[in-house]
Each structure stands twice: as structure tokens, then as C-alpha cells.
Design a protein that fits this description.
Blueprint: H1 2-35, H2 43-64, H3 72-75, H4 80-114, H5 128-153, H6 159-169
């Protein structure tokens, strides 16, 4: 299961990076086409959808690698016992918030599908198609937070703390995958 989850987080991060590269490609193509006198219709729509996808798909990966803003400044100053309890409470709270995010985004996309909403821009497609990246990214983020919550509750070291410790002891070292 650990190997599957780590591959899921890595794939999610890779897809977020692919979305960012695609944004650059679309923008460069749009600029080149403009110079040649052509119009790239819908480029702004595509870039907007890719921005949302890159942001949401990156959440789980960045969380696991200690790159999201957390309460580490407070936790690092606590004694080990209090730190563990406070970290469990913080992760539990984060888990509830991410669950709400997942539920709300799934409901939002479902309603878009249910009411046959169409994108308002130049590309007229069912809007739930690009919106599904919100749900998938939020689901992967939920799994990542739940994963570390379970690891911490069982007495282990969460992945984000391991990544932070690696960066503290070996600055510039590649992050573990």
C-alpha cells in the first residue's frame, strides 16, 4: 500500500508539473501565432483550467514533502509529548477541512454535470470536464493528509516531517519520492 500511495503522490506532482509546462506551451504558442497573424481561440480558457489543475494536483505532493504552510513554528518549540498531541490535533483539524473541501468540490462538479453547465469562454464544453481536476486533486490531498494522520497516530513520523528533517540536515539534498 505504501508503494502505491507514494506513486500516487508522485504522479499527482508530475501531473501538476505537466500542467505548468502546458501553460507555458500554450502561452508561447499563443504569442507565436499572434506574431504570425493567427488567433489561438480559447487559449485563456485552457490556461485557466490548467492553472486550477496544477494547483489542486500539487497539493498532496507538496504536503507530503513538507512544502505547504503548517504550524511548524509552534510545534518545533514544544516538548516531544506535547508536540505529538498538538500535531495530531492539527492534522485532525486539517483532515476535517480537506474533507469539507473534497465534499464541496465534488458537490460543485456534480451540480455542473447535473445541470449540463457549459463553459462560458470561447471553448464550449461541459464545464464539469475541466472542473474534475478539482475533485481529483482534493481527493489526493485528502488521502495524503489521512495517510500522515494515521502514521502519526500509530507513533510513526509523518512524511512531511521526514522531508523537513532531510532538508535541515542536508540542504539542497533531493527530496525523497
Amino acid at each position: 500500500m505504501r508503494r502505491f500511495l507514494d506513486r500516487l503522490y508522485a504522479a499527482s506532482g508530475a501531473f501538476a508539473a505537466l500542467c505548468l509546462a502546458s501553460i507555458a506551451a500554450v502561452m508561447l504558442l499563443q504569442a507565436a501565432m499572434r506574431e504570425l497573424g493567427f488567433l489561438f481561440r480559447g487559449a485563456d480558457d485552457i490556461v485557466g483550467w490548467l492553472c486550477a489543475a496544477s494547483a489542486f494536483f500539487a497539493l498532496g505532493y507538496t504536503f507530503r514533502h513538507g512544502e505547504l504552510v503548517r504550524v511548524g513554528l509552534v510545534l518545533d518549540r514544544l516538548p516531544p509529548g506535547a508536540r505529538r498531541l498538538t500535531e495530531i490535533i492539527a492534522l485532525g483539524t486539517a483532515l476535517l477541512f480537506v474533507a469539507c473541501l473534497l465534499w464541496a468540490s465534488a458537490r460543485f462538479v456534480y451540480q455542473s454535470w447535473q445541470f449540463d453547465e457549459v463553459a462560458q469562454g470561447l471553448i464550449r464544453i461541459p464545464i464539469w470536464i475541466p472542473q474534475i481536476s478539482l475533485v481529483l486533486g482534493a481527493a489526493i490531498f485528502f488521502v495524503a493528509v489521512l495517510d500522515d494522520f494515521i502514521v502519526l497516530a500509530r507513533g510513526g513520523t509523518p512524511a512531511y516531517r521526514g522531508a523537513e528533517d532531510t532538508q535541515r540536515t542536508q540542504p539542497g539534498a533531493p527530496l525523497p519520492v
